[in-house]
Amino acid sequence: MRLIFLGPPGAGKGTQAEILAEKTGLPRIATGDIFRKALREQTPLGLEAKAYMDKGELVPDDIVTAIVRERILLPDCRHGFILDGFPRTLAQAQSLDALLDEEAMQIDAVIYIDVADEELIARATGRRVCRSCQMPYHITFSPPVKEGVCDACGGTLYQRDDDREETVQNRLNVYKSQTAPLVDYYAKKGILRQIDGSQPIDRVSLDILKVVGIAE
Ligand code: AP5
Ligand code: MG
Ligand code: ZN
């Protein structure tokens, strides 16, 4: 199964993609996580990406596409994968299509998580993320059992630099101008599945499991 998670910043892509990855054993490929990891390791890629991420802008298409291409061609993706945060522009979607064509693969569904703007801002600004495994939490909506500590792996939680309110607003604007056109792009291909992301996390998960045919 090959899936794309699409939706505005804070919609719950990471939360839901991680839950599904755990259920299915499929690898989750999250471009934002890849850049944050590179930055922690102070690689040239991480330092270059940081300049864009801190402003809430997109990292250039050629950089992102090359990374995803390399990742999808690794053996653990042979039976499927979950893309979280990619593609994010029409050019990225077209590059992905070209790569999938070459490899005789196709996307089974694009899970589009839809949430209203006011809610997105509250979600992003209250988010805390595990430094080790990247699992997202929320100080109000989805707190860890022990404050500041990841339930899954015991890692420390931190606030992302781009989760300040001004940056979140810019990420939302960038989403609307550059990424939202993908909703139409995939709807026209007949593979878009819209999910009401304003529901509680477990309800959203259930809707996604139904859409991908894992739950009734
Ligand atoms: P990225 O890391 O992908 O960030 P994003 O798209 O802005 O999305 P988020 O991670 O903020 O939100 P999410 O949908 O994953 O929500 P989450 O599950 O965490 O990208 C960061 C940056 O990297 C970009 O700005 C760009 O610079 C660069 N980048 C990445 N990919 C790129 C690409 N392809 N091209 C170019 N540049 C790229 O949930 C959010 C919060 O809400 C959490 O606190 C969570 O606990 C809570 N929550 C989740 N679901 C619910 C619910 N149902 N009810 C209540 N709370 C909930
Ligand atoms: Mg995310
Ligand atoms: Zn963790």
What does this structure look like?
The protein is an alpha/beta fold and 216 residues long. It has a domain at 2-115 and 178-211: P-loop containing nucleotide triphosphate hydrolases (Rossmann fold, 3-Layer(aba) Sandwich). 46% of the residues lie in helices and 15% in strands. The chain has helices at residues 13-24, 31-40, 44-53, 61-72, 90-102, 117-125, 165-179, 181-188, 201-211, and strands spanning 2-6, 28-30, 81-84, 109-114, 127-130, 136-138, 157-158, 192-196. The strands form two sheets. Strands 2-3-1-4-8 form a five-stranded parallel sheet, sandwiched between helices. A hairpin with a 5-residue loop joins strand 5 (127-130) and strand 6. The two termini are 17 Å apart. The structure holds BIS(adenosine)-5'-pentaphosphate, magnesium ion and zinc ion.
Explain the layout of strands and helices.
Elements: E1 2-6, H1 13-24, E2 28-30, H2 31-40, H3 44-53, H4 61-72, E3 81-84, H5 90-102, E4 109-114, H6 117-125, E5 127-130, E6 136-138, E7 157-158, H7 165-179, H8 181-188, E8 192-196, H9 201-211
Parallel strand pairs: 1-3, 1-4, 2-3, 4-8
Antiparallel strand pairs: 5-6, 5-7
Helix pairs in contact: 1-9, 2-3, 4-5, 6-7
The chain binds BIS(adenosine)-5'-pentaphosphate (AP5), magnesium ion and zinc ion.
